[in-house]
Amino acid sequence: MIIYYHVFLYWHLSVCRECSACNIVVFVDRQLVFNHRQSLAEQLRQESDAAMTLHLASVLLVHVHTQCMVHAPGRCVPQIIAFLRQYLPADQYSILLRSQGAIIVLLLQCTSIIAAIFPDELGSSGPPLCPSHLF
């Protein structure tokens, strides 16, 4: 699914074969691509949530290394990071992997805290995502 539509000529390439929701959209308009990169950089500067920071950083890295605009949901961040392996030096790639692991641990800890506080409300649908104000 392509989340972003534009009147300029485009085509989409799949970032990952496992997740059909991740797409790269290539536009001919250079100004649009430049504005998108600037917007991502500004959002990254202002972001305080760890998971969203990793999401924005990985999307921005794909944009910088491939010159393609990426619009992907947060669930595709592991696939995006795996895609970036071919473009990044080993030390930078390991930083992304460690950040991803830390965020997963943080979310699991938050889930266990919520389960301890509200054991009856979790039900069969699974635990909700941890709100930022609990930290």
Keywords:
135 residues; mainly alpha; 3-stranded antiparallel beta sheet; 3 strands; 52% helix; disordered N terminus
Structure explained in plain terms:
By secondary structure, the chain is mostly helical. The chain has one domain. The chain is 52% helix and 10% strand. The protein has a 3-stranded antiparallel beta sheet. The radius of gyration is 17 Å and the shape is elongated.
Task: Label the overall shape.
Answer: elongated
Distance between the termini: 34 Å
Largest sheet, in brief, is: 3 strands, antiparallel
Please tell me how large the radius of gyration is.
17 Å
Instruction: Record the strand order, biggest sheet.
Output: 1-2-3
Number of strands: 3
List segments where confidence is low: pLDDT < 50 over at least 5 consecutive residues. 1-19
Query: Oligomeric state of the chains?
Result: single chain
Give helix % range: 40-55%
Give the number of domains: 1
**Order of SSEs, N→C?**
EEHHEHH
Mean pLDDT: 75
Hey, roughly how much beta strand do the residues contain? 5-15%
Based on secondary structure, the structural category is mainly alpha
